[in-house]
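ligand=zinc ion
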Amino acid sequence: MKNRTLIGPFKQIIPMTGINLKGAISDHELEIIEDGGILIEDNLILATGNFEDLKIAYPEAEIHPLKGNHVCVPGFVDAHTHICFGGSRAKDYAMRNAGKSYLEIAHAGGGIWDTVTQTRKSSLEELTKSTIKRANRHLKNGTTTLEVKSGYGLTVAEELKMLRAIKNADNEALPELISTCLAAHMLPKDFDGSEIEYLKMISEELFPILKEENLTHRIDAFIEQSAFSADDIQAYFSKASEMNFDIAVHADQFSAGGSKVAVEFNAISADHLEASGDTEIALLAQSDTISVALPGASIGLGCDFTPARKLLDAGAALAIASDHNPGSAPMGDLLTQASILGTFQKLTNAEVLAGITLRAAAALKLEDRGKLEAGLLADLAVFHSDNYQDILYYQGNLKPCMVWKNGTLVFDRHK
Ligand SMILES: [Zn+2]
């Protein structure tokens, strides 16, 4: 016997169907189902449509009744986070805002290396617990799928500890966690050798274990003057491609260059792009690589935003993610950040919502979510409102009142 539930009536359902993966979107392109219902069968959406029509068509369905005005959108997908870490970088943040330079902060014991030290000191259990806690906080803000990177271990054993913690956290956390290996975050201070030697060691020693233990199918690298150069990364990404890993790139954050590598290696996504110029924008727009804007990092560092408007107008696929991390993006509130990016970059509601739903799902190569459509996962974010525009209008301060993950009501503010 199938378990069928009909949720509704919703004042509006915004299913995000019929929206192109790439390019600008006008708000007129958003389909709006008025007085709608969503029929769920187990973990999947069976149908969306008019609530009364669905009630008649599926009389056996159990009704989950809604009182008052509610708007439903697909559960959000956050395609770029670093929420598995130990320690805090509050001191760095204060020093940076007091005008101290990157070097002064590093000399005072801050920077990524501080997080590496604190993460290495943390046990597998501690990392698992704190990752679950942070992931569940994202869920209350409507995020039902979260990508989580390693990259604060920077030895084979410590990267494995992080990726095992993310895997364990995924078993318990309410959102689904998609892990990524970011062992190529920076050259660890205590590695005795060059960038190329470090990357060679990681690809030879760590990659096979990732496959064996099924810890991740995604490899990411930070291409930047302070991390790895486009030349350094060639052999690393070639090896990752040969082994059928999907590739993602931290690209063009402070200087351009990473996006070109991303496109050359047919990366699933190129993330950051704050320093992308017209050449990089054209390259990304012509590629299948998803451009991921990380407004949380711009807000955290007080830097320019990703040129989201230009990317969309050039025809790129634009996703928006929180980059939640202890250093540059401690806020971890995707909806607030996406809303602010929309204000500064003049993005339509449709473009921002697509950036945190279907286009973000594409940035993780997930085809089973990001839209409210028959056959897809029943991941829903429900807001107390009579107008979907409220969701971005309140700049993240209007929180979901209900969140459904895989057909289960996992968060209910009414109770
Ligand atoms: Zn990042």
